[in-house]
Design goal:
The chain is α/β, with parallel strands linked by helices. It has helices at 3-12, 25-44, 60-75, 94-99, 120-129, 152-161, 181-184, 209-212, 239-242, 250-266, 268-287, 316-327, 339-352, 361-365, 384-399, 401-405, 425-428, 431-439; strands at 52-57, 81-85, 102-106, 134-140, 165-169, 188-192, 203-208, 225-228, 233-235, 292-294, 306-311, 332-334, 373-377, 408-410, 416-418. A hairpin with a 5-residue loop joins strand 14 and strand 15.
Amino acid sequence: MMQPALETATAYLQHYANTHSTVHTSAKITSSVMQWAHQRIVTFLHADLTRYASILAGSGTTAAVNRIASGMAVLRPERDVVLVSMMEHHSNDLPHRQHAGLVEHIPLEMEGTYAGEIDLQALEQLLIKFKGRVNYVAVTGVSNVTGIINPIGKIAALVHRYDAYLLVDGAQMVAHMPVHLERDDIDLFVFSGHKIYAPGSPGVLVGKQSLLSKLEPNQLGGGMVSLVTPYSYQLEESLEAREEAGTPNIFGTVILACVLEVLDQIGMEAIFTQEQALIEQVIKNLSGCPDLKIYGDTDSTRRVGSIAFNIADMDHGLVAALLNDYYGIAVRNECFCAHPYVKEMLKEELFSLDIEADTDEEELFQVNLKRGMVRASFGLYSSAEDIETLGKALRDIVEKREAYLACYEPQQDGSYLHKHFNPAAESLFDPRQVLADYLSL
């Protein structure tokens, strides 16, 4: 949570009221704040307020993508094909599978361990193959697994040439680099507030008004209609109002807008430059670590935000546990809700195993040592010292792997528990105890 944003939103709570009214002072304040927040979101993405609108979505990027997948299927039912890249998070893959007639996956440049960005030639071949049937193309701006950056401007130009729309999953992109909706001619852009230092805030969909205005709202209720009779209803003209049936997440939206204001003052270009320097440093640092493999294209100029790796002959679950327990480094492991992408980069390890040829795909992917990776992520709070600490920790793990392994019990779910150090979550933070302490004051 970004502290200035939290403090500002907390101050706003003195005036909290529901939206959809201006009859009293608090309602006027809330309506004004929400209007500012919607505008702040659009301008942060370098988009014209007369051409683009922002819509709040409940459960983060997932809700925003589902909104588009369902709406676009109804809008252009004759266009039954959606193209999705191989590197997508499940949030930008599964909703399209549910609503589209056919989902085809776009290959990546290079294969296996060093898979890179989206292959533009392969994308065009798919657009030609399904010409007249492609409704939209859904791609991530930055991979949540490897931090690889896709050439969104080039993709947009190619997609529009074949009369299709472009949906960009910006969840991993928006906190790490500048986004230019107008310049790159992006039709639809989605992201999550919790990915951009605003936990508790909603997901966001920003899109061209000319497209969004054609979509029928998928939720009906109070606040999004101007007139209701026993037999009909009339929608509000405002796109934002039409998509906000019921009470929106006002507090979370205020926090998100404040975060975007702070980031704009810092400058996203400066943030991007600083993080790329960190990525270059971590790649150089980890490349010298014995038995460590980095996944994805290792060109640091084409990456931001995160890096995925494995240590040879060590389960990713054990490495993640060691980094947490012994070094205080929080990482994620397994497949990061991007199973097809992770499997592609792990296929050399999978094929090197002595596995029967007729083993089904699900069983193959459950092979313990080869079914995931470790991912370290970076942000505003990261420093060069953090990179050095990570490198030293991984070298220490490689050197002492046998001693460390003896300290852990593998679990059926793939995790590892220390034999002597396993504090319960409640012993570290118990909301009931904290609440009781406040009530006793």
